[in-house]
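Forwarding the complex inputs:
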Amino acid sequence: MSADAHAQLAAEHEALIQFLYLAPVGLVQTGIDGEIVMINPVSAQLLMPLSRDASLTNLFTALEDVAPELRHLCASFARPNGMICDGLHIHLNSGAAGKRMRVPHVLSLSLLKLDGSRLMAVLQDVSEQVRRERQLRQSDAWLNALLTSISDYALVGLDREGRVSDWNETIARVTGFRPSVVGQPYSVFYPEGATTTEQVQDRLREADANGWSLDEGPRLRADGSQFWGSAMISPLPDREPDLPTDGEAAYCLVLRDISDKRDTVDKRRKSVFCDHLTGVANRRAFFEAAELELTRNRRTPRPIALVLFDADHFKQINDRHGHPAGDCVLRQLGEALSLTFRQVDVVARVGGEEFAVLLPSSTLAGAEAMAGRLRRLVESQPVVCDGVSIPYTVSAGVAAVDAGESIDLDTLIKRADRALYAAKANGRNRIECWSEDRDANR
Amino acid sequence: MTAATDLSFTAPGLHGQLLQLNAEQLDRLGFGVIGFGADTNVCKYNQTESDAAGLNAARVLGQPLFTNVAPCMNNFMVAQRFEDAQDEGNALDDTIDYVLTLRMRPVKVKLRLLAEPGSDQRYVLVQRKL
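Prediction (whole assembly, two chains):
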């Protein structure tokens, strides 16, 4: 063989070895008794922590403690070749240890008998899949419970783009929409400002990923009246993901009128997600919503804006008029914010006199305009508390994530905070936007 | 380097000594040396290790150790030890019995895990058992 051909062969061999080293599943070849002949690194990664004698001589021995039945399973497999087990789940521990990294909870094992003397095994850490499946089963049960306990719901088929794919009586009963609703995006059931085009798609993607997507909020009937609704979207099973199914139902939307349950839902939600004084979202709700929106942004890029508001000279208001007056100011500010911004925006009280508004699908300029509107509204309407008129103003800092830009929530907050600081430093009762070049000193 | 310098697999204070060695000197050691930085990317890969694994250093250098080079060590027995030492700012000098899958054959080895709080450079040393 020529030196060149030899070098070529050596390079190919090396590449092949590296391919096996890096395969993200465990591959093992053993004798019929489990004696290991060949094994790749991921197998060692998964098996070494289980092996009592720190050796990997025999696959059955290595798995003895967690899957004692394997030896018998193979011995009693009568056919000359074939799948002995396919994706057998081996539970290693309670799963509690999984919180600490690198401790798998469940392994999946497939064993193929090649002939009377050889076995091939595939090993995989499936902890995450098992966790997701469990979640899915729970939501199935949940869905059943929901459906059996309610009297009426609209069952709406949606095509892949989220357009209503066909009409039926239930749609008319719950929403009043007639057959002409077919072909319209399901946002037709949402009042203006209660969702965005991107969110309409987000829910479909979430349904794809999790098996369902649930949200509650104001919904719209054909006659323009509103009701409090719960909407669950789930992908229809057994459809070919790549076939062109334009107009065909790909999702099922279950829309319920839960106006009568709203009080209970609201009460529960308020205790967990609302600021007790102002009624707007609390820090927890804000962080959850913001993380969700930023995650969605990474999947489907779109702008997101954040405005931080701070009541100017709030300490002086408290000192001069007393704390109840200060509370009045905060309540009115919360209310003004809720009225000014869209329903889809998240208004939250994030500090003593500090509020945050998260604006999905909004640019920096858009958010700045909204913030300006709020600032003028506050300036023009003094709070009246116990017959005393208390004028006050707010300052705001605005920051935004551009479509496709990847920054985390902490950074976004930090930027809005810098801008807010600049607004304070520049005389208060004003809006400043964060900018890279002068870091908020626009 | 004096003649008395002990550069065996079990030598005390080996972390500091390895830092002093150039690539050629590392290559001459009888055990495998994988050096990696704070980002876990491999920056040292000596000839002994390269021969045993069947991989040229060029395929390995700059790659994250626990995902792209030695996934077999990506568990609480090895990777977690380095991570804990890093998080807590502790020194690490432990020798454990392990099995590597060199060229897909299970090979019993001793691994020596070395890290020093003041240094970004960390090492996995590999001694094949006879």
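The first helix of chain B runs from residue 14 to 20.
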